[in-house]
Write a structure and sequence with these properties.
heterodimer, A: about 400 residues, alpha+beta, 2 domains, 6-stranded mixed β-barrel, about 50% helix, B: about 250 residues, alpha/beta, Rossmann fold, 7 helices, 10 strands
């Protein structure tokens, strides 16, 4: 009977395509919007994700997310180092600087750009970018050296080849900075260029403040879990302990703190939820209406089958089977199109797009709801159908 | 034509060497309630015999369609008894009734009701598929029946590629493919021109009427009355007379 149900479904090509198109559109919209929301949220944590080989971040207890790092004191670094289980602890700076692109000019459009400055420990360069594209990480030890992210370079000098980056001189806080290399790094939420430099150098590029240490990056002793190290630091230096309070978090905790902040304090979730819900409603409306019309038009056929000995249960199975096929196709095409969109559009723009399996699962769930709701309306019609209707011409 | 009282089914069955395929007694069917109540059947007594084609005739709204719907187990009577192939339909409920219908009754509809996405052979195979026969076997058996109704060469044609008469022949093949013991045809010639209608009735007589099978045909087309072994006339929910084409009257007004 499943075979008959599928033949009935695909028999009217126009209607079949219309139903699948409705579900496809809904799946595309839901998957695409959720993926963009995920991409945007992911960007909020890009700095944390790009700092590899770090087990624990020690922050001011009031810090809520990565872009709001409240400075610590130099003494805090040594207090952290003194905790048993801390293998190593280094300085880390994160701030913003105003970048003057052309030293010869004094004014004009595009002369100044905001940039994110990341200051890495002078000795170890812990927190360095994962992949250097042009130049080398060692060059960062040269005077005034900075390594810029490729995206930032393309943003500032869109027509310049990457090879022309090394040797370019820019100015920050009236200090010259020489680009010694380009690196790959994750896109940031603000889409500003990222400049990696030594910690001591970073302090020259930003306006002076009394405290400048953004965070202490910690590596756990061998064999010790980051969580355990966090616990030890928090017990001895956290709120309630003597002295200035600090807060230690693992990488995952810091990522979730940041995500949580952006989800609660920005409109990202609300905006994308609205679009996703709209996609869902459009899907229900289009697919449901078309599927219902399809069932109504086939009511006589269902009646004939009922008269010929098909039970209600089997008819329900047929309608659900049809809905499931429509849902599977719509989901596959819609999610596929969203994937293609996510693959190609970011190549020509800085679109945030990240499609984890949870987005696909969520989209599949939404599509399942759409087709089930559509089928239920139709099933009701089929169940109450009197088989004698077939004798009414 | 004289009008006589209907004999008791068992008595006639014995006397005429014909077995009763269907009998009903005191059948009434009401639609709606109170002031809106419409009595479609008003105490119908009737027999249908295996090996015969029984025509059910009468003007529109006289209750023919309601009667065959009740006989085929598609509608429940308000009152009265219906026995089909030795089974009391009132005692067959739910899936038992559905299975009984699927196994024992074939249907030919006025508008053919073929599935437009299936070709002729696949359409004719539907009752076998419902019965759980494998698709390849079902289609093979259906193709043989299509040969019998003269449409073997059009087995792969879609309904939209067939004329009205050809579609009705496919519908007849579909109704017979699972070898039912009762065939119920609702206005099988109504949507056809005179020649096609005649062809369809000839076909029904040739392939449908068999010793073990009863055929009931609802029609108001007087041109096909000659094809019936018995003609049951209805009016206002009642059987008013039963006759044979040769003029031998066998029923009466009730």
């Amino acid at each position: 009977m499943t075979w008959i149900a599928l033949r009935m479904l695909t028999g009217d090509r126009t209607k079949y395509i219309a139903i699948v198109a409705g579900v496809t559109f809904a799946a595309l919209l839901i998957a695409q919007q959720l993926s963009i929301a995920c991409g945007l949220l992911l960007r909020t944590t890009s700095t944390i994700q790009d700092i590899v080989d770090v087990d624990v971040f020690v922050l001011d207890p009031d810090v809520q997310f990565i872009d709001e790092l409240k400075p610590l004191t130099e003494n805090d670094l040594y207090r952290v180092k003194s905790i048993p289980g801390v293998g190593w602890a280094v300085r880390f700076y994160k701030g913003q600087a105003r970048l003057k692109l052309d030293l010869a000019r004094t004014d004009g459009p595009g002369l100044f750009q905001q940039a994110i400055v990341l200051g890495l420990d002078d000795d170890t360069l812990v927190g360095a970018p994962r992949e250097i594209v042009i130049g080398s990480l060692a060059a960062l030890r040269e005077p005034d050296a900075v390594i810029m992210d490729v995206g930032g370079f393309k943003y500032l000098w869109p027509d310049a080849p990457l090879e022309s980056a090394v040797g370019r001189v820019v100015e920050m806080n009236e200090h010259r900075a020489v680009i010694v290399g380009l690196c790959k790094s994750s896109e940031t939420f603000q889409t500003f260029p990222i400049l990696y430099t030594r910690y001591s150098q970073a302090l020259l590029f930003v306006p002076q403040e009394r405290r400048v240490l953004s965070a202490v990056l910690v590596g756990a002793d061998t064999g010790l879990a980051p969580k355990e190290v966090c616990q030890r630091i928090n017990e001895q230096l956290g709120r309630g302990a003597s002295g200035r309070a600090l807060r230690a978090v693992t990488r995952d905790e810091f990522i979730w703190m940041t995500l949580d902040y952006f989800m609660k304090h920005t409109g990202i979730i609300v905006n994308f939820t609205i679009t996703t819900v709209l996609g869902f409603i459009v899907g229900i409306a289009v697919a449901g209406q078309t599927f219902y019309t399809f069932t109504l038009e086939n009511l006589n056929q269902f009646g004939s089958l009922k008269a010929m000995g098909v039970s209600n249960l089997r008819l329900v199975g047929m309608v659900l089977g049809q809905a499931l096929v429509v849902g599977l196709l719509g989901f596959a095409i819609g999610a596929g199109l969203a994937g293609v969109f996510g693959e190609y559009v970011p190549r020509i723009s800085r679109l945030a797009f990240f499609m984890p399996w949870q987005v696909l699962a969520g989209t599949a769930g939404a599509v399942l709801l759409i087709v089930t709701a559509s089928a239920l309306v139709s099933i009701r019609k089929v169940l109450v159908l009197e088989p004698a209707v077939v004798f009414r011409g | 034509m004289s009008v006589a009282t209907l004999p008791e089914p068992q008595a006639e069955a014995t006397a005429g060497q014909l077995s009763v395929a269907m009998s009903c007694r005191g059948l009434t069917k009401a639609f709606g309630e109170g002031d809106a109540c419409v009595m479609a059947l008003r105490g119908v007594d009737m027999e249908v015999f295996a090996g015969q084609m029984t025509l059910l005739v009468g003007e529109s709204g006289c209750g023919k369609t309601t009667l065959i719907s009740v006989i085929a187990g598609l509608l429940d009577p308000t009152e009265g008894e219906v026995g089909v192939l030795g089974h009391d339909l009132r005692k067959l409920r739910g899936s038992r009734l559905v299975n009984f219908r699927g196994k024992n009754i074939g249907f030919v509809f006025q508008q053919y009701n073929l599935l437009p996405a299936l070709n002729a052979a696949e359409n004719a195979a539907v009752p076998l598929l419902i019965a759980g026969v494998r698709r390849s076997e079902a289609v093979a058996r259906a193709t043989k029946i299509l040969d019998a109704v003269g449409l073997g060469s059009r087995a792969h044609s879609l309904p939209s590629q067939l004329s009205g008469g050809q579609q009705q022949r496919v519908a007849i093949a579909r109704a017979l493919v699972h070898e039912p013991k009762l065939l119920v045809c609702d206005e099988p010639t109504a949507a056809l021109d005179a020649q096609s209608g005649k062809t369809v009735m000839q076909l029904l007589r040739k392939v449908a009427v068999q010793p073990g099978r009863a055929v009931i045909v609802v029609t108001h087309d007087s041109r096909v009355f000659g094809f019936g072994d018995r003609i049951v006339h209805m009016s206002d929910g009642r059987i008013i007379k039963v006759e044979t084409p040769e003029g031998r009257e066998a029923g009466g007004e009730r």
